[in-house]
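Project outcomes to date are best conveyed with an example. Our students and postdoctoral researchers have been running inverse folding experiments weekly, and each run begins with a structure described purely in tokens. The record below, which covers 303 residues, was selected by the lab manager from last quarter's runs and is presented without edits.
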């Protein structure tokens, strides 16, 4: 190794990013101390001597096993080496059994005595990614109940409708309204009402466990549940169980004309998506059943 490269290695060893230097063929010429430490701490098959290993070939091996990030990385490195791109960067997950991790890979070129080399750095961006994911998560949730909000529900129903259309499967929608909730708020105060909504939201999560299910706050004291690939009979059974669970919460509503505790009414509808209908029709049918449940005494499911 010439003196220029030796000086460069001193600089790179002082950097906390994981860094590897390759030549124009992809063969590794140098890795810094941070790279070696990461490999050793993560049971890497090559934990110290990387000389003779071809970085691009390793990307290709991972790509052949279906790693799409390795595919992008290999392509980006080749583009920088061939001067199709001046530099390249890629954000990718690198989770361990104990924690979630993300890194940003960057590649740039440099010359030593007329020979071309390429620095590939891997910077840990886990803290930023976790913060971004939390922001996205909060944007999808209702601020009070911490279940899905109206916008998330609308998007989910649209996609689930399309899925059930392709598969010719049924989809059920339940709209739930808490009976005489205004009286509860007036008698016990809005903090009591908010606590009630939070407890109902937590309960609803028990009834939306599959990828084709969702529970969401629809607005005010109204909630919705979607059950994809579910028959009306199955959805009716779930809805009856849900009403029973709500009464078991034993939330007092002393002046309610229905019962002296919190109850709910549910409108339930089923459709098989086709080219002549849409999710708006399903919402309309469930809403119509909800009004029927309320008009016929509340605390019941109409479907």
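After processing, the design step wrote out the following sequence:
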């Amino acid at each position: 190794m010439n003196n220029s490269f030796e000086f460069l290695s001193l600089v790179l060893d002082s950097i906390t990013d994981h860094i590897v230097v390759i030549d124009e063929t992809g063969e590794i010429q140098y890795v810094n101390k941070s790279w070696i430490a990461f490999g050793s701490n993560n049971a890497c098959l090559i934990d110290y001597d990387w000389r003779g290993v071809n970085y691009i070939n390793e990307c290709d091996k991972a790509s052949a096993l279906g790693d799409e990030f390795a595919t992008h990385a290999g392509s980006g490195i080749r583009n920088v080496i061939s001067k199709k791109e001046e530099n390249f960067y890629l954000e990718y997950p690198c989770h361990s059994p104990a924690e979630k991790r993300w890194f940003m890979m960057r590649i740039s070129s440099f010359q030593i005595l007329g020979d071309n080399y390429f620095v590939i750095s891997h910077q840990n961006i886990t803290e930023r990614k976790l913060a971004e994911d939390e922001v996205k998560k909060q944007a999808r949730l209702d601020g009070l109940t911490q279940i899905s909000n109206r916008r998330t529900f609308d998007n989910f129903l649209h996609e689930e409708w399309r899925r059930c259309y392709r598969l010719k499967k049924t989809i059920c929608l339940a709209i739930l309204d808490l009976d005489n909730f205004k009286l509860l708020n007036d008698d016990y105060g809005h903090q009591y009402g908010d606590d009630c909504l939070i407890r109902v939201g937590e309960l609803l999560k028990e009834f939306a466990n599959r990828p084709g299910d969702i529970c969401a706050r629809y607005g005010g004291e109204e909630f919705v549940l979607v059950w994809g690939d579910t028959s009306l009979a199955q959805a009716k059974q779930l809805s009856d169980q849900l009403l029973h669970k709500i009464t078991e919460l034993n939330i007092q509503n002393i002046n309610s004309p229905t019962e002296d505790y919190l109850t709910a009414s549910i409108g339930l509808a089923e459709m098989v998506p086709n080219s002549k209908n849409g999710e708006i029709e399903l919402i309309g049918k469930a809403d119509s059943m909800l009004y029927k449940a309320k008009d016929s005494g509340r605390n019941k499911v109409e479907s």
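The mean pLDDT is 90. The radius of gyration is 29 Å. The training component of this project remains on track.
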